[in-house]
Design a protein that fits this description.
elongated, two-stranded antiparallel ribbon, 6 strands, two-stranded antiparallel sheet, mainly alpha, 2 domains
């Protein structure tokens, strides 16, 4: 084993902070504020950012595809939800899986942080169209369609959350 040096290390970002930590990738000294704990040890924020960029593979045209497909399929499912009522409890998650897999197929399985978010917003917007129409019809003096509003909302929650977690994967932490 090598002898520890008596040289005092200082964080490369905060030069007035002494430290004993080093980034396990670039070997620069880092303080506890700059250190990011990874499964393989501590890394500096620059190395973590560089590693994350490897996983962003989406192209510019994947975003409109995700928005159109997510919103369109969710809109069709929303119409189905207002017609089927209670059975949407079983169909909503299946619709979310279908939407996610359609987006994944049409985007060539490319991924990015914003691709999942844009698909989430479009799916939620498409899923809430018919419940919104039902709500506005009720507010404008039309017949009260409480069940259409409830089941449409349930569909929106089930399909949107299922699509998002299917598309992006469950991430803890």
């Amino acid at each position: 084993m090598s002898e520890p040096s008596n040289e005092t290390l200082y964080c490369y970002i905060h030069p007035n902070r002494p430290t004993l930590l080093r980034c396990n990738q670039c070997n620069r000294p880092i303080c506890t504020e700059c250190a990011v704990l990874t499964p393989t040890g501590y890394r500096c924020k620059e190395c973590v950012r560089g590693q994350q960029k490897i996983f962003v593979t989406a192209r510019w045209y994947d975003y409109p595809i995700a928005v159109v497909v997510g919103g369109g399929l969710a809109l069709a499912g929303s119409l189905l939800a207002t017609l089927l009522g209670f059975f949407i409890l079983f169909i909503g998650p299946v619709a979310g899986v279908i939407i996610a897999e359609a987006i994944r197929f049409l985007t060539g399985r490319r991924r990015s942080w914003w691709l999942g978010r844009s698909a989430l917003i479009a799916t939620a917007a498409g899923a809430l169209v018919f419940p919104a129409i039902s709500l506005f019809g009720t507010l404008l003096g039309g017949g009260i369609n409480v069940w259409g509003l409830i089941w449409g909302g349930v569909y929106a929650v089930l399909a949107t959350t299922t699509m998002y977690y299917r598309l992006t994967g469950i991430q803890i932490g």
